[in-house]
Amino acid sequence: MRLVALLLATILALPAVASTSPVLPPLNEVMAGGLDDAEEFIEDFVKEHPDHAEAHFMRGAIMGMQASDSIFSALGYAKKSLSSFQRAVELEPASVQYRQGLISFYMAAPGIAGGDMELAWQHIEAMREFDSKAALQMELTYWQVEEDDAKFQATLQRGLEEFAEHPDFHFRAGLIAQERKSFDQAYAHFDTCLTTDIETEAATSVELNCLYQIGRTALFSEQRVADGIRALEDYQQRELTDNVPGKEWAQARLAALYLLADRKSDAQQLVQVIDAGEDENLAEELKSLRQRVNM
């Protein structure tokens, strides 16, 4: 089911919702004991506070993840997720976060579970009335799901022109250029991303992502290696937010760049302190790095 990929990518990356009374703990804390415990908690909370919009939004996210994690109960969980997102939007129709959750569901879920691209588009249009930038971002995802590259590119260009002072669309354009190996274009967008003056929590996260991607682009292209090293060394010193790559991945990328720059001793020192934890992909990367630095 496409549900897990889009729900996790979109909902968990959203800025923190402004808490309403009574205050809910953050979603990651609610989920600390696992999805079943999270479901039990949010069901009890919603029963006690049926008009609490944030609780319905959180219930939608949790039920969506349960739907993606379950084989036999997926349809039931998906329907609960949909009704929760709908209720959150009904209670607070001008909330960007709640509207994004509902749109993401419509685009991710199969039709039998309530997925509906036409309804997704209707809510994107409704969002334009109170946040045109967020609506344009959701429109990008819409055309991506529809696999309409021409409309995706046209929408991205609109974002770059209409919101040039924001980092968001430069980051998205940089990732696309990087994927297409147009490294000069990728650098141009990521560099611009770091010069914007918007000071919000969301903008800070985007800028951190751009800083990380400068290092990643240097590694892929083997160009501007010194810039990539400086970017990742800077990244290591920043206070990282929840929706950016972890310090360990940045360390692995930096160690690889040190090797490109013939700084083997620096790479060896860094590889020694990287903890892959339970990340299998990082563990494989670390294994390769250890071989390259003769450890």
UniProtKB/TrEMBL annotation:
<keyword id="KW-0732">Signal</keyword>
<feature type="signal peptide">
    <location>
        <begin position="1"/>
        <end position="18"/>
    </location>
</feature>
<dbReference type="InterPro" id="IPR011990">
    <property type="entry name" value="TPR-like_helical_dom_sf"/>
</dbReference>
<protein>
    <recommendedName>
        <fullName>Tetratricopeptide repeat protein</fullName>
    </recommendedName>
</protein>
